Structure formats: structure tokens, C-alpha cells
Amino acid sequence: MNNLDHLTRVTGAFLRDVSDSDPVAPLADIRWTVADLAAHLGEVHRWAAGNARTGKRGERQNVPELSVPLATWYEASRDILLTTLEELDPAADCYTLSAVDRSVAFWHRRQLFETLVHLWDLRSAVDAAAPPAPEVPPRGARRWRVRAVRRVPAAVERC
Known about the structure:
The chain is mainly α. It has one domain: Four Helix Bundle (Hemerythrin (Met), subunit A) (Up-down Bundle). 52% of the residues lie in helices and 0% in strands. The protein contains 5 helices and no strands. It has helices at residues 3-19, 34-54, 70-87, 104-124, 152-157. The longest helix has 21 residues, at 34-54. The protein starts with a helix and ends with a helix.
């Protein structure tokens, strides 16, 4: 599996779990509710898709207010991200958060790690004592410098 395949699976797990979650449930490690988290992740997915598609840095809100049901918002955001990344050449240039990797493939990896971290955040609303999977670094860590690329398939398998 490549990063886009992993991303498809992990975002599917997030969608499944958010659909079954109480929107007002608090998260264990950040001062957000399930609704805040899903709104944030959906917005980040849309922002990343726009950056990849246009090649320019887009604007975004950290936690937008939603006018549609939570699962509907996240599913639409997931679809925008996955459709965009599937349509674009992974080697194409675009705006990224990296000084060295300006390819669409950056967003495959970045959104995979973003979603893995937030999947654990979401699951913490059900079990606040649950430790993150070893593939997901602790909150204070520089999570985007994770050297867990080789371990991602194991994390995805558990989704």
C-alpha cells in the first residue's frame, strides 16, 4: 500500500468512528469536543486539497462552525481531499509546509499523519486513559518529524 491507500483507510476509520461518537464528548488531550475535532480535521483536509490543486497556500479556520451534520461535513471533506489527491500527479509541484518537498505527495503523507493523530484524539473521547498507538507520537512531540513511516501499515491495519 502507498500513502494514499493508507490515507483512504485511516480517513475511513475516522469517518466511521465520528459517525458513532457523541459530538459534545470532550477529548482527553486537547480542549476540544468531538465536533470541534471533526470540524478541524475536515477543514484541514479541504485546505490541503486546495493547496495541492491550486499550488498556492489557502486560508483556513482552525475550527469552523458547521451548518451541516458532523459526519456529513467530514465525509464531504474526506471526499474532496481524496478525489483531489487521486486526480493529481504525486510528483506535481504545489504549495506545502516543507522547504524541501514541494510535491503533491507531501500532502499524501502529511494528511495521513494528521489523520492518525486525530483518530487517536477521537478515540480518546471514549477512553481517556487509552494510550496512543506507538505509531502516533505523544502530543508534545514534533509529530511531523516522525520516523514511523515504516510502521504506518501496522497502524492502518488496526483501523
